[in-house]
Amino acid sequence: MILRDKPGLMQLLFAVRGSVLPRILPRILGLSALSALVLWIDANVMRLPHTNAAPFAVFGIALSLFLGFRNNAAYDRWWEGRRLWGQLVADLRSLSREVDLFVAEPDRRAQILRLALGFLHLHRINLRKEADTSPAIRWAGDDFSESPHAPCAALDALTAAVAIGADDGFARKALAERTASIALAQAGCERIATTPLPYVYSLLVFRTTYLYCLLLPFALIDGAGWLTPIFVGIVAYVFFGLAEVTEELSHPFGETVNSLPLDAICRTVERTLAPKLGQEPPPPLQPVDYYLS
């Protein structure tokens, strides 16, 4: 995630960190070059068809509406992912307090909290499809990576520890409801991660955007003249930029600069639970070049 204050004019014009411009720049330059080629052919080789700009205005409005709809759907996924991780933070903090109330044995309390931290890291690793499970092993003390589903294995171990350590039936019920809430948030994140936006949306958006930008020079030749490549580049930046932003937001658990800061969220929970384990809280993660992972 990019964290920075409101940029000034110069930063707004030239900021690259967090922008999709580096990824879409080859497309913008390519379409601008094709527009220049169309102008040159029209002026020096043969007269090409000159169309009216009115159909492109209607076409552009329809494309903008569709891009807006797709962008809203992608942002809903991003925001739901953030809400689910916020729920996990709240549930793990509540679990630590409930364990203090309902589990009398200190070693068993520490085991439950360590397994909770191990689960959280394994959940993050599973969503991002990472291979390094050392943070989870460091906290949980066990390696669950050989299990068919490592986060569920850690949560099962946590549930077993709760069943053994809880003082009575009421305590087991309260802690079981807490682990069920954790599992519900976990399932919600996995639903987002494994169910992308329909591919047909991406296919239609990119095909239509290319078609629009390729035909646009024929509508601008008369009015814009040799400024046509510049206008085509601006239009391509807007449409391809929106499409690329949508692609990033639709994958909220990835490692792009605009994805959710899962490492920082895990560190927040570590800072909450570490004192209960008799450890010094680790420092909070800070943005590096405005990027918080």
Automatic annotation (TrEMBL):
- Show the PANTHER family listed in the entry: UPF0187 PROTEIN YNEE, VOLTAGE-DEPENDENT ANION CHANNEL-FORMING PROTEIN YNEE
The record's similarity note reads: Belongs to the anion channel-forming bestrophin (TC 1.A.46) family.
State the species of origin.
Answer: Phaeobacter inhibens
Query: Which Pfam families does the entry link to?
Result: Bestrophin_2
What protein does this entry describe? Membrane protein
Q: Specify whether Transmembrane helix is a keyword of the entry.
A: yes
Where in or outside the cell is it found? Cell membrane
Q: How does it sit in the membrane?
A: Multi-pass membrane protein
InterPro entries in the cross-refs: YneE/VCCN1/2-like (IPR044669)
Transmembrane parts of this sequence: 20-41, 53-73, 199-220, 226-243
Domain of life where this protein originates: Bacteria
